[in-house]
């Protein structure tokens, strides 16, 4: 009936032509192509391959907005390069093919709809462009549909080149849905067959439906960062992957970086007190402010590898407290600021401890920059960014270290003084002094030792989750 269960005979990267040939030769794979905004670059590959009538039921490009609205429905915000529009396209087209192709006449057909809605680079080359693409498909006759939905950023400086890259990725996506979907992680890598990340970047991907039952999309987001496909991904308090451009647009952003293994009362005290200070800034309003809890890949690594269950435990705990989580590949703080600046022109704040601030002033992290630490700090403290500093208690002397008495290397002493004098570093006040004696790692060590005193160091809801789900300790025994 179908060759979907056959072992792929190709060991090397399959050419786009051969991928389309194989799909076209499969007598049961049949579907529609709806491409808006960048021509019909994906379906072009199928037309050029052998036997296109074997796969293509219909192709269209509702480029005009009125035509698009007439087919897929009105867009309330008059925005067309959106996930909602893509899903409307896929739902409509799969519904239509089910209506028009008889299941009685074609009982073994595997229907699919591929769609994309994109905006390529503008004529002035100030806006590189982005878009949504996806495929809704069946791998068994009459099966409920599965979906792969992704968002891409274009990096090429020519609209024609962007269109070509989009077409290649679209063909890769359809082929992967039918022939490489057993392992979603490998599927992601196959989306880059004959492509590179400097041409097109996937910064969000979601899998759903029976083919991907049990797939945790947060792990798929993590895979994007691990593979260097994108530098940062985000997910909501509900645990869903979200697009940074949508979440951060025109927002004031306060960021707290950590390993959060687990999230502790100290983390929450830093968050609460720094947010109080951030909201006192002149142009910062609560309704337009978001707090991001960030983990870097280095934060996630234990013994050189990222343990997925450990990562999900940490994410679940943060989400349980209602927080948005970001996973990034940003080692230096200035890169975090640059990333946020791509999405908002509003106020930015960083909440951190004394040890992190001292680390920021370590010149070794900026040797790769032609302008060294001065270039990094020009990027870090652009506009009115503020650092909200949680104090440190010297365990030997009991001395409280704040921005006023911390020691930095003599070579950067004057640079530090400049930022301090210009109110770029603000000490967190009214903190809980008892927390100075409980560094975050202490809670984790107690958990691993089976010492129940860890519960007094962790907020109530996460503590309950850790206890009931045996978090962290079970990772030790895996």
From TrEMBL:
It comes from the Bacteria. InterPro entries: Rossmann-like_a/b/a_fold. GO terms for molecular function: nucleotidyltransferase activity. Gene3D superfamilies: HUPs. Keywords: Nucleotidyltransferase, Transferase. This is Nicotinate-nucleotide adenylyltransferase. The lineage of its organism: Bacteria, Pseudomonadati, Bacteroidota, Flavobacteriia, Flavobacteriales.
């Amino acid at each position: 009936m179908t060759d979907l269960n056959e072992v792929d005979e190709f060991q090397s990267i399959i050419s786009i032509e051969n991928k389309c040939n194989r799909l076209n030769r499969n007598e049961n794979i049949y579907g529609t192509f709806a491409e808006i905004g960048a021509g019909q670059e994906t379906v072009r590959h199928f037309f050029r391959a052998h036997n296109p009538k074997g796969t293509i039921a219909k192709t269209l490009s509702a480029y005009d907005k009125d035509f698009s609205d007439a087919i897929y429905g009105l867009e309330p915000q008059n925005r067309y390069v959106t996930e909602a529009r893509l899903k409307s396209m896929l739902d409509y087209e799969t519904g239509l093919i089910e209506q028009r192709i008889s299941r009685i006449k074609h009982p073994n057909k595997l229907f699919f709809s591929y769609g994309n809605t994109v905006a390529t680079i503008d004529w002035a080359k100030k806006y590189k462009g982005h878009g949504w693409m996806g495929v809704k498909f069946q791998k068994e006759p009459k099966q409920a549909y599965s979906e792969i939905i992704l968002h891409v950023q274009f990096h090429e400086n020519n609209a024609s080149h962007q269109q070509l890259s989009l077409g290649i990725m679209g063909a890769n996506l359809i082929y992967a849905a039918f022939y490489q979907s057993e392992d979603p992680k490998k599927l992601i890598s196959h989306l880059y067959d004959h492509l590179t990340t400097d041409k097109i970047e996937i910064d969000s991907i979601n899998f759903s439906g029976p083919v991907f039952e049990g797939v945790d999309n947060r792990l798929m987001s993590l895979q994007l960062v691990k593979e260097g496909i994108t530098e940062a991904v985000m997910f909501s308090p509900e645990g869903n992957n979200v697009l940074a451009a949508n979440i951060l647009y025109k927002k004031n952003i306060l960021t707290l970086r950590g390993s959060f293994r687990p999230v502790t009362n100290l983390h929450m005290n830093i968050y609460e007190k720094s947010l109080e200070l951030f909201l006192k800034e002149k142009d910062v309003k609560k309704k337009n402010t978001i707090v991001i809890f960030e983990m870097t890949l280095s934060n996630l690594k234990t013994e050189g590898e990222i343990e997925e269950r450990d990562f999900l435990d940490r994410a679940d705990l943060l989400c349980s407290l209602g927080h948005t989580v970001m996973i990034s590949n940003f080692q230096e703080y200035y890169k975090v600021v640059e990333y946020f600046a791509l999405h908002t022109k509003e106020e930015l704040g960083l909440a951190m401890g004394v040890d992190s601030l001292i680390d920021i002033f370590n010149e070794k992290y900026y040797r790769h920059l032609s302008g060294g630490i001065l270039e990094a700090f020009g990027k870090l403290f652009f506009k009115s960014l503020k650092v909200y500093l949680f104090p440190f208690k010297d365990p030997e002397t009991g001395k409280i270290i704040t921005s006023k008495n911390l020691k930095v290397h003599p070579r950067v002493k004057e640079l530090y003084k400049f930022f301090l004098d210009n109110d770029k570093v603000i000490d967190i006040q009214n903190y809980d002094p008892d927390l100075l004696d409980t560094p975050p790692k202490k809670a984790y060590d107690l958990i691993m030792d089976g010492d129940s005193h860890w519960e007094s160091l962790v907020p109530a809801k996460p503590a309950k989750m850790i206890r009931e789900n045996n978090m962290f300790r079970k990772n030790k025994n895996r």
